[in-house]
């Protein structure tokens, strides 16, 4: 029968979400893990309780059965009741416990490990050019001592002589016939000569694993990477789940991405744009120089071929450099005088240009 409240063991509310249950479990599992508390029997017992509670509450079907069962038990009459049906009600709940435990034991056999999710944030440069990152993933991993078998010795498990491998035995109480987990093998169907000291026969332990992951060039926010077999290990040698890495790329203060092309904006002075110049442009690999021809207009775009984002076919996009004209806000007397002289020198040209523009406006409305 269920002797403890699984919600109290994990320290969560009865309406806690799956994520809250998982966080509470991992925190408590790390705190009471036998590796961190060698020789502490109380911590070992607490660790087993935490695992048992999590096995039930992390499974939606088991949790629903557990909630219905505990709710019904609160409504049932106590054993001290004089009702002639008291014995039968208690028999019913004993049977329910047996069904619940049997189902739990069956599903606790060899099973595939859970998939894991890891959120990773990358710099703009690492996302474009690719990199290698080191991840530290806390998870249920294969026990190194028994190599996931759950056995202390090198011999394999033997068929249980009591239940003959079924994991359950039939019993009859009053007019009910029901099954319950085998008391000899605890519902597993096999016996073990000696359970592994580290994992207590589970075949896995909770620990932090370090992974070196290669990030391919050209990834962007929302990209998912799947690492097969790097999720949680399965119970008693079951196949492991997968690890999914969800990527987020930080914004760059200078570059913007457009598919496989990069864009940036550089300021030019009036003198540079008018007379032409040569400027230095930063790229992801270093610096490049481009020539600005005389008379360059605001908004002009210059392209540096092959300086963009790597593509799947081993080519690269381009880097587009957009020009903006920087207008000075503070001028010295000398600068003002020179600009006024420049304006007077170009008055005739300016007038003709203006006249042509007005003429075009008249023609448009005519």
List the keywords.
366 residues, four-stranded mixed beta sheet, HSP40/DNAj peptide-binding domain, alpha+beta, 33% helix
Please characterize this protein's 3D structure.
The longest helix has 22 residues, at 86-107. A hairpin with a 2-residue loop joins strand 10 and strand 11. The chain is built from nine helices and 15 strands. The chain is an alpha+beta fold and 366 residues long. Among the domains are: 112-157 and 192-251, HSP40/DNAj peptide-binding domain, CATH 2.60.260.20; 256-327, Sandwich (HSP40/DNAj peptide-binding domain). The protein is elongated, with a radius of gyration of 36 Å. The protein has a four-stranded mixed β-sheet. A three-stranded mixed β-sheet has the order 1-9-8. A two-stranded antiparallel sheet has the order 2-7.
Q: Shape, please?
A: elongated
Supply the CATH architecture of one domain. Answer: Sandwich
Q: Residue-averaged pLDDT, rounded?
A: 79
In the sheet with the most strands, the strands line up as 10-11-15-14
CATH superfamily of one domain: Urease metallochaperone UreE, N-terminal domain
Q: According to CATH, what is the class of one domain?
A: Mainly Beta
- Span between termini: 97 Å
Instruction: List the helices and strands in order.
Output: HHHHHEHEEEEEEEEEEHEEEEHH
Please estimate the helix content: 25-40%
């Amino acid at each position: 029968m269920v002797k403890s409240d699984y919600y109290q063991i994990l320290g969560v509310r009865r309406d806690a979400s799956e994520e809250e249950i998982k966080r509470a479990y991992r925190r408590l599992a790390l705190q009471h893990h036998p590796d961190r508390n060698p020789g502490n029997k109380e911590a070992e017992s607490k660790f087993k309780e935490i695992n048992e509670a999590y096995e039930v509450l992390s499974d939606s079907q088991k949790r629903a059965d557990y909630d219905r069962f505990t709710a019904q038990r609160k409504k049932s009459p106590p054993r001290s009741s004089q009702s002639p049906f008291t014995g039968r009600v208690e028999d019913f709940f004993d049977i329910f416990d047996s069904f619940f435990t049997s189902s739990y034991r069956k599903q606790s056999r060899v099973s595939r490990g859970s998939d894991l999710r890891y959120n990773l944030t990358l710099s703009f440069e690492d996302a474009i050019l690719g990199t290698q990152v080191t991840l530290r993933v806390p998870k249920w991993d294969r026990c190194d001592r028994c190599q996931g078998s759950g056995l202390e010795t090198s011999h394999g498990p033997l068929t249980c002589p009591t239940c003959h491998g079924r994991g359950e035995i039939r019993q009859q109480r009053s007019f009910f016939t029901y099954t319950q987990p085998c008391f000899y093998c605890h519902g597993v169907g096999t016996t073990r000569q000696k359970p592994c000291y580290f994992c207590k026969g589970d075949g896995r332990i909770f620990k932090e694993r370090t992974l070196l992951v290669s990030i391919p060039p050209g990834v962007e926010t929302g990209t998912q990477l799947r690492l097969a077999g790097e999720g949680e290990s399965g119970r008693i040698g079951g196949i492991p789940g997968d690890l999914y890495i969800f990527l987020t790329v930080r914004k760059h203060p200078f570059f913007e991405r457009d598919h496989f092309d990069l864009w940036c904006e550089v300021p030019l002075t009036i003198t540079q744009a008018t007379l032409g110049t040569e400027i230095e442009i930063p790229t992801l690999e270093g610096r490049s120089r481009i020539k600005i021809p005389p008379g360059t207009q605001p908004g002009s775009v210059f392209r540096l071929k092959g300086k963009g984002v790597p593509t799947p076919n081993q080519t690269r996009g381009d880097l587009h450099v957009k020009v903006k004209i920087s207008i000075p806000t503070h001028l010295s007397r000398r600068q003002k005088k020179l600009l006024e002289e420049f304006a007077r020198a170009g008055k005739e040209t300016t007038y003709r240009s203006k006249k042509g523009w007005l003429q075009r406006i008249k023609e448009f409305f005519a």
